[in-house]
């Protein structure tokens, strides 16, 4: 595409730039002008290529797409006579194209210039071919930050990067155009203005183009309405494929398919589904009894809560003996900081953990039928009933507390608190959102687009979230096949957002993240320096992105968040094991630490020292 544009296909490139200078918007600087020219050119070429694709598809099968379009550029109907009403407009369009070409050449050569030209976008001229009259009449742009302030989806909103600064708005008929569209520019409009005459806005998220990444095209098809997007790829049908190849025709694939042919498969009936049916049956046949029990426990617990009580939430955790050291540290850590834990309820999956909680003065619930018999090393029996049960314990406990009528702040045991986040979740500031997540930071396909970390999230009690967890708890076979409930939950979020209007919010990792975790610890050293220096003020820290339990402890130790005595066997009680001050110990110099750890070894092969 860019290669085509750079071809000086029209004469008098240098002189054409100053044409069409009427009605300059004073704010229109040269770079904007160029980017808009490019956007329009992209649209034109998109239309052109679709046409070409159809023609070519009828005649031959597929060939290299880039070579075919370059050889046929002159014949594109969108740029020819059919496009414009009159010869005057045609001349003007040709001049504009020349302008686009010349600007492209100049910018690609790095010769910025003090040109004064501006691209007139006034809707008096036709923007799309007549064959699209009932689809699109014009377009505008809105700065994406401004767009997100007014029409926030709730995804962890990326930082704005150069060349992907604006939202492209397409108008489907004259009535939807902004009121003053006939006499002013439609570029860089405020959201209110751009959408003032829109009854509804259909929003599509599109990742900015990356160099050497997938060559993606977008098709908008005149057809009965749909709020789903579909995906075709040039992938062979064999399961173990080598990836996209132009030899292959485009075929329908799942959204999880990647360029190299990987995709997420479905759970297997005999392994995952049958194993889960048994677990689900057990859960459902005990549900009434357990909810009844739990309701009584939580009512008593709620009465014991002192101080201002604007929250309707319980902090829900689930823990087995293997992870109990982390839970122990969480409690000692919060106590040392004076954070109130009277709203915590721990779902123990064994008796020993239940007893530990009692010893720590933490409310806990243990039910043999639903959570019991989960051995410490259950993870080894992939696909079996015990394993599914363990995976689903994290879903069951949220479903149970919701069933009792409360909001839920779910958190893993590898979270430490800096201050109690419940007041934040109860504030008006976040009243919009039904579910709020920590940003996982992993931008993999299976977590698109909310990137939810399922180790720290808030659920507001409502019919829609109740239904959400009612559905999620029936997806245990998928949870078993993906070995975590993160992918299942993430997929269901998409469905519920689209289908039921569920409002989901994830705060973006880094910078001002109120809920930082493993992605900051391992990737955002600047953020971690600010954290260590007390220059940022988050609510929690989640030692995610670290699968090994022992490493979690080492990292928390050097971060100054480990409040558990080493010789726990010598404590007279679980609370006696708690330290008043953290045991700050260096382990790795290439991981964030509260104190300089310059003489410690690296943990990563090419890790750089955190302290310079
Ligand atoms: C555009 O037209 C409207 C209505 O015709 C008028 O009120 C407004 O002042 C015009 N704006 C400019 C910049 O000419
Ligand atoms: C602090 O941690 C180090 C390393 O894990 C350990 O050797 C030491 O005994 C700990 N100190 C206390 C008071 O637990």
From TrEMBL:
<dbReference type="InterPro" id="IPR052636">
    <property type="entry name" value="UDP-D-xylose:L-fucose_XylT"/>
</dbReference>
<dbReference type="Pfam" id="PF03407">
    <property type="entry name" value="Nucleotid_trans"/>
</dbReference>
<keyword id="KW-1133">Transmembrane helix</keyword>
<protein>
    <submittedName>
        <fullName>Nucleotide-diphospho-sugar transferase</fullName>
    </submittedName>
</protein>
<feature type="region of interest" description="Disordered">
    <location>
        <begin position="89"/>
        <end position="126"/>
    </location>
</feature>
<keyword id="KW-0472">Membrane</keyword>
<feature type="transmembrane region" description="Helical">
    <location>
        <begin position="39"/>
        <end position="60"/>
    </location>
</feature>
<keyword id="KW-0808">Transferase</keyword>
<dbReference type="GO" id="GO:0005794">
    <property type="term" value="C:Golgi apparatus"/>
</dbReference>
<feature type="domain" description="Nucleotide-diphospho-sugar transferase">
    <location>
        <begin position="341"/>
        <end position="553"/>
    </location>
</feature>
<keyword id="KW-0812">Transmembrane</keyword>
<dbReference type="InterPro" id="IPR005069">
    <property type="entry name" value="Nucl-diP-sugar_transferase"/>
</dbReference>
<dbReference type="GO" id="GO:0016757">
    <property type="term" value="F:glycosyltransferase activity"/>
</dbReference>
<feature type="region of interest" description="Disordered">
    <location>
        <begin position="1"/>
        <end position="29"/>
    </location>
</feature>
């Amino acid at each position: 595409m860019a290669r085509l544009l750079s071809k000086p296909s029209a004469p008098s490139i240098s002189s054409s730039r100053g044409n069409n200078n009427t009605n300059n918007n004073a704010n229109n600087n040269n770079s904007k002008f160029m980017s808009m020219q490019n956007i329009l050119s992209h649209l034109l070429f998109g239309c052109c290529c679709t046409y070409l694709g159809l023609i070519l598809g009828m005649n031959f099968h597929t060939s290299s797409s880039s070579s075919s379009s370059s050889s046929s550029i002159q014949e594109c109907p969108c740029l020819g006579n059919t496009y414009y009403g009159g010869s005057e407009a045609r001349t003007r369009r040709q001049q504009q194209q020349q302008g686009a070409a010349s600007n492209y050449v100049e910018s690609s050569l790095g010769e910025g210039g003090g040109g004064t030209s501006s691209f007139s976008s006034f809707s008096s001229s036709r923007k799309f071919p007549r064959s699209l009259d009932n689809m699109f009449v014009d377009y505008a742009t809105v700065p994406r930050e401004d767009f997100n302030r007014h029409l926030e989806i709730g995804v962890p909103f990326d930082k704005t990067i150069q060349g992907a600064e604006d939202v492209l708005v397409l108008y489907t008929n004259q009535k939807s155009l902004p009121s003053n569209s006939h006499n002013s520019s439609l570029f860089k409009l405020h959201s209110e203005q751009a959408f003032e005459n829109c009854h509804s806005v259909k929003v599509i998220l599109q990742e900015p183009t990356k160099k050497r990444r997938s060559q993606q095209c977008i098709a908008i098809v005149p057809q009965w309405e749909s709020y789903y997007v579909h995906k075709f790829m040039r992938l062979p049908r064999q399961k173990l494929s080598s990836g996209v190849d132009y030899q292959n025709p485009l075929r329908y694939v799942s959204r999880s398919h990647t360029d190299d042919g990987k995709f997420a498969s479905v759970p297997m009936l005999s392994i995952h589904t049958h194993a889960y049916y048994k677990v689900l049956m057990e859960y459902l046949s005990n549900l009434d009894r357990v909810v009844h029990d739990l309701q009584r426990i939580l009512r008593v617990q709620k009465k014991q809560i002192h101080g201002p009580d604007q929250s309707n939430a319980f902090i829900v955790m689930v823990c087995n003996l293997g992870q109990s050291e982390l839970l122990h540290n969480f409690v000692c850590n919060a106590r040392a900081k004076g954070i109130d834990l009277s709203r915590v309820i721990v779902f123990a999956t064994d008796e020993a953990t239940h007893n530990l909680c009692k010893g720590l003065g933490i409310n806990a619930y243990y039910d043999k039928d639903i959570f019991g018999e989960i051995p410490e090393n259950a993870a080894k029996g992939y696909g079996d009933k015990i394993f599914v049960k363990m995976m689903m314990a994290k879903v069951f406990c949220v479903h149970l507390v919701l069933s009792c009528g409360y909001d839920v702040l779910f958190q893993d045991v590898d979270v430490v608190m800096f201050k109690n986040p419940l007041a934040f979740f109860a504030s008006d500031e976040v009243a919009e959102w039904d579910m709020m997540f920590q940003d996982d930071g992993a931008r993999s396909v299976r977590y698109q687009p909310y990137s939810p970390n399922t180790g720290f999230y808030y659920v507001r009690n409502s019919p829609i979230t109740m239904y959400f967890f009612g559905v999620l708890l029936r997806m245990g076979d998928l949870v078993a096949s993906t070995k975590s409930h993160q992918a299942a939950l993430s997929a269901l979020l998409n469905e519920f957002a689209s289908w039921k209007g569920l409002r989901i919010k994830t705060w973006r990792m880094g910078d001002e993240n109120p809920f930082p975790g493993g992605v900051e610890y391992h990737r955002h050293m600047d953020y971690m320096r600010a954290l260590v220096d007390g220059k940022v003020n988050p609510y929690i820290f989640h030692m995610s992105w670290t699968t090994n339990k022992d490493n979690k402890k080492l990292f928390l130790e050097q971060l100054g968040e480990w409040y558990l005595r080493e010789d726990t066997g010598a404590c007279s009680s679980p609370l006696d094991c708690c330290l008043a001050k953290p045991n700050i110990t260096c382990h790795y110099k290439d991981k964030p630490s509260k104190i300089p750890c310059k003489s410690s070894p690296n943990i990563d092969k090419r890790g750089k020292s955190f302290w310079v």
